[in-house]
Design a protein that fits this description.
With 331 residues, this protein is α/β, with parallel strands linked by helices. It has two domains: 9-77, no CATH class; 96-323, Aminopeptidase (3-Layer(aba) Sandwich), CATH 3.40.630.10. It is 35% helix and 12% strand. The protein is built from eleven helices and seven strands. It has a seven-stranded mixed beta sheet with strand order 1-2-4-3-5-7-6, sandwiched between helices. Strand 1 (96-100) and strand 2 form a beta hairpin. Helix 6 (131-146) crosses helix 11. The relative contact order is 0.11. The protein binds zinc ion. Zinc ion is lined by residues 126, 130, 240.
Length: 331
């Protein structure tokens, strides 16, 4: 290996470099002193982009450094960032979670279609006590997956087969399997005619349930509320059993859209509407009444009993739900 040798040419080169550097520094400092500023007090933008030519400009026109912002100027012409970025849709037909139950079980949904009108179907709001509603929604999911039932182009359909997983999977330990893990009836926890207690004589009264400490005290109702609002749901079905009837959302009378939807679904299924077999239970804090108050056409569909999945009836009912369009509001 050849040792590095300082020859005459190298010495001259180094000397020239240092002389140049010292001259540059002297020039730079004096230029800033002339403009009345030390190098340290230069604004960040100017000092960050400092070059010899900028220093010269500063002496020629001392005010120019405050008006010229070379670093930021190009950003003004850049394409503005869009305010709304499209959230990618979850994969079609695959489970995704919108939250968790109080016991930590996931609330799993399925999406079909990608149109602008959002429809939602909910099973098992009353857990294992109405477990056939979850079975039905899973069967409808399979029909949609296989293509037996097609979702129209303008609709996005979401299925939530088990809205109350605590009551569904842990039903032996919970009041009739109808509540969530802390004994709350998830169909009495919505912020619509909510009441801490109610007359139970004509209602389900085989076990003691509560309405929660206050409206939306439960993670399940919060998760579904946020999902419905964030996705601007247009209409929903919440499945129950076993009255073979349909209830429409809205108080004291059903709102026109929910009423129209209930009629369309009754015509397709022969489930009774209006539900004249209603024993006169005092309904409080219900999902469909909250949905109605928030502009969502909403119905409870009651299957014929607590065992049958009613799949043949509800294939027709689902097709009617997908074909239904909100009636025009006359001014
Ligand atoms: Zn129910």
């Amino acid at each position: 290996m050849r040792p590095f040798k300082v020859n005459r040419n190298t010495t001259l080169l180094l000397a020239g470099f240092f002389a140049g550097a010292i001259l540059f520094l002297l020039f730079f400092v004096s230029a800033n002193l002339l403009s009345g500023k030390s190098a340290l007090s230069l604004p960040f933008v100017a000092s960050a982009g400092s070059t010899t030519s900028e220093a010269v400009n500063a002496t020629v026109s001392p005010t120019s450094e405050w008006t010229v912002t070379p670093v930021f100027a190009p950003a003004l012409t850049a394409t503005p960032t869009p305010i709304f970025t499209a959230t990618p849709l979850p994969p079609e037909g695959e489970a995704f979670s919108i939250g968790e139950s109080i016991e930590g079980k996931p609330l799993e949904m399925y999406r079909f279609g990608s149109g602008p009108i959002v429809r939602v179907i909910i099973g098992a709001i009353h857990g294992g006590y109405e477990s056939n509603t979850a079975t039905l929604v899973y069967l409808l999911r399979d029909d949609l997956k296989s293509g037996l039932i097609a979702v129209p182009e303008e609709i996005t359909l979401y299925l939530l087969p088990v809205f109350n997983p605590d009551g569904f999977y842990d039903y032996l330990n919970l009041p009739a399997g109808r509540s969530n893990y802390r004994g709350v009836d998830l169909n009495r926890n919505w912020d619509a005619y909510w009441a801490a207690d109610w007359d139970r004589t004509r209602c389900f009264n085989y076990a003691y349930l509560t309405a929660g400490e206050f409206p939306f005290s439960e993670p399940e109702t919060v998760a579904l509320r946020d999902f419905l609002l964030n996705n601007r749901a247009d209409a929903l079905i919440s499945y129950h059993s076993a009255m073979s009837a349909i209830f429409a959302g809205g108080r004291p009378e059903p709102d026109p859209a929910s009423d129209d939807l209930a009629r369309a679904l009754s015509a397709a299924s022969l489930y009774l509407y209006p539900p004249t077999n209603d024993p006169g239970c005092q309904y409080t804090g219900q999902l469909i009444d909250w949905a109605s108050a928030n502009g969502i056409a909403a119905v409870d569909v009651e299957l014929t009993d607590h065992q049958s999945n009613d799949i043949l009836i509800n294939r027709k009912l689902l097709e009617a739900f997908l074909a239904w369009r909100r009636p025009m509001v006359s001014e």
